[in-house]
Design goal:
Layout: E1 2-7, H1 10-16, H2 19-26, E2 28-33, H3 44-49, E3 57-58, H4 66-84, E4 88-92, H5 96-107, E5 111-115, H6 127-138, E6 141-144, H7 147-155, E7 163-165, H8 169-180, E8 195-199, H9 208-221, E9 226-230, H10 233-241, E10 250-253, H11 258-267, E11 270-273, H12 276-284, E12 289-291, H13 299-303, E13 307-309, H14 314-326, H15 328-336, H16 345-357
Parallel strand pairs: 1-2, 1-4, 2-3, 4-5, 5-6, 6-7, 8-9, 8-11, 9-10, 11-12, 12-13
Helix pairs in contact: 4-5, 5-6, 8-11, 8-12, 9-14
This protein binds uridine-diphosphate-N-acetylglucosamine and uridine-5'-diphosphate.
The site of uridine-5'-diphosphate has 16 residues, from helix 1, helix 11 and helix 12.
Length: 358
C-alpha cells in the first residue's frame, strides 16, 4: 500500500512525528512538505531534534495571500500525486497545507485520511475552522481525538462508520519529547514555577491593535512575575513593524525547539496561549492553561475546568492573572482536574488504516 503524507507547518511536523516512522516501516510511504513553514526555527529544527527523515518532496512556495498560497501548494501536490499514485493521502489538523493536501487528493479521487478531525470552535471567522470543516467533509477516514469531535462530525452528517476515536497524536509526541529531555540542559536560572510561558500567533491576535492590547497586559503582569514568550515569526513581524514596547521582565525569544518548549512548559507556573497544540500539551503535562481566545476547538478541557477561556481583553487578562497569582488554590484546582490520556494513538491510526485497506 502506498501512502502520501502531506505536512507544511510546525504543529503538523510535531504531531505527526511519532506516526511517520511507523508509516515508513509498514507502508510504501512518501512525505510531501508544502513549504508553508520554511524558516529553520519553524521547520528544519523539528526534523533534526525529532530524528525525522528528509521529506521526499519539498516545495518552495512564497508566503502570500491565502488563495495564492493554497493554489501554489495544490499545483505542486497534484504533480506529486500524479506521479506517485498513492492509495491514500494523510493530512493532519486545520492549516492551509491540510486543506491543499485534501482538496488535491479529492480532485484526483484519491482516498483521504484526516487526523484530528471533528474539532470545532464554532467560529467561522477563523480560517482554521473553515479548513477543518472542508477537509472533514472530503475525507474517507476520520480520526478524532475524542467523543466531542466524533459527535460534531455525526451532527454534520458524516457516516459514523468512517469515524474512529483514537485520541490525540500530540500525546505521543509530547510524552516522547518529555522522555528525551535532558533536564540538566534546561536553563538553571529558570527556577520551577518562577515564570509564566506565553505564545501568541493567531491571525486575530496579531492585528496591530489586538497584539498591542495583549502585550500591554503582559507588560503589566511582568512587573509581578517573569514572562517567557517565544515569538512566532508572524507575531515578530507585527511587533517590529509597530514598535510595540516591551518591559524588561517580559522576555521575548525566537521560536524555540520542541524539547526546549516542552521543558519550559512543564516548569512554568502556568501558560497563556492562543495555540491549539499548546492547549492540548498543557493538559497532558498538567500545566494550568489560560487561553487567549474567545473560543477553542478544545472546549472539553474548558468544560472540565482544566483550561480557562480567558479571551483577549487587556483588563480581563490583567485582572484574572493578578487574581490567580494571589490565589494559588485556583492553580491547584486546575492541576487537580484529571484528563483521560490516551497513549499509543499513532499505532491505533496505523492499525485502523491497515485493517481498512489491507
Ligand atoms: C499557520 C496556520 C495556523 C497554525 C500555525 C502554526 C493557516 C491558515 N494557519 O499560521 O493554523 O496555527 O501555522 O504555527 O494555515 N513566517 C516565516 N517563516 C516561517 C513561517 C511563517 O517568516 O517559517 C511568517 C511569514 O511572514 C508568513 C507569516 O509568518 O507570512 C504567517 O505564516 P503562515 O504559514 O501563513 O501562517 P501562520 O500564522 O504560521
Ligand atoms: N512549539 C515549539 N516551539 C515554540 C512554540 C511552540 O516547539 O517556540 C510547539 C508546541 O509545543 C506545539 C506546537 O509548537 O507542539 C504548536 O504550534 P503552533 O502554536 O505554532 O500551532 P497550533 O498548534 O496553534 O496550530
Amino acid at each position: 500500500m502506498k501512502i502520501v503524507t502531506v505536512i507544511g507547518t510546525r504543529p503538523e511536523i510535531i504531531k505527526l512525528s511519532p506516526l511517520m516512522p511507523i508509516f515508513d516501516k509498514e507502508f510504501n510511504h512518501k512525505i510531501v512538505h508544502t513549504g508553508q513553514h520554511y524558516s529553520y526555527c519553524m521547520d528544519r529544527i523539528f526534523f533534526e531534534e525529532l530524528n525525522l527523515r528528509k521529506c521526499d518532496y519539498a516545495f518552495n512556495i512564497a508566503s502570500s495571500t491565502p488563495a495564492s498560497q493554497i493554489g501554489d501548494m495544490m499545483r505542486n501536490i497534484e504533480k506529486v500525486l500524479l506521479v506517485e499514485k498513492p492509495d491514500l493521502v494523510v493530512v493532519q489538523g486545520d492549516t492551509n497545507s491540510t486543506l491543499a493536501g485534501a482538496l488535491t487528493a479529492s480532485k484526483l479521487q484519491i482516498k483521504i485520511a484526516h487526523i484530528e478531525a471533528g474539532c470545532r470552535s464554532f467560529d467561522r471567522g477563523l480560517p482554521e475552522e473553515i479548513n477543518r470543516i472542508l477537509v472533514d467533509h472530503c475525507s474517507d477516514v476520520l480520526f478524532t481525538p475524542d467523543l466531542t469531535a466524533f459527535n460534531n462530525l455525526v451532527r454534520e452528517g458524516i457516516n459514523q462508520d468512517n469515524i474512529h476515536i483514537v485520541g490525540n497524536t500530540s500525546t505521543d509526541a509530547c510524552l516522547r519529547a518529555k522522555d528525551l529531555l535532558n533536564w540538566k540542559e534546561l536553563d538553571e536560572s529558570l527556577e520551577k514555577q518562577s515564570y509564566i510561558l506565553v505564545t501568541v500567533h493567531r491571525q486575530k491576535n496579531t492585528s496591530p491593535n489586538n497584539l498591542k492590547n495583549i502585550i500591554n497586559s503582559l507588560n503589566i503582569i511582568s512587573k509581578k512575575i517573569k514572562i517567557i514568550f517565544p515569538v512566532h515569526l508572524r507575531t515578530r513581524e507585527v511587533l517590529d513593524e509597530n514598535n510595540i514596547e516591551i518591559e524588561d521582565n517580559l522576555i521575548l525569544t525566537d521560536p524555540i525547539g520542541y524539547k526546549d518548549f516542552i521543558g519550559l512548559l512543564v516548569n512554568s507556573k502556568f501558560v497563556m496561549t492562543d495555540s491549539g497544540g499548546v492547549q492540548e500539551e498543557a493538559a497532558i503535562l498538567n500545566v494550568p492553561c489560560l487561553i487567549l481566545r474567545d473560543n477553542t476547538e478544545w472546549e472539553y478541557l474548558v468544560e472540565i475546568g482544566k483550561n480557562v477561556l480567558l479571551g483577549t481583553d487587556e483588563k480581563k487578562i490583567t485582572e484574572h492573572v493578578n487574581y490567580i497569582l494571589n490565589n494559588e488554590s485556583e492553580l491547584e484546582n486546575m492541576r487537580n482536574k484529571k484528563v483521560p490520556i490516551k497513549t499509543g494513538v499513532s499505532k491505533a491510526i496505523f492499525y485502523t488504516i491497515k485493517n481498512i485497506y489491507l
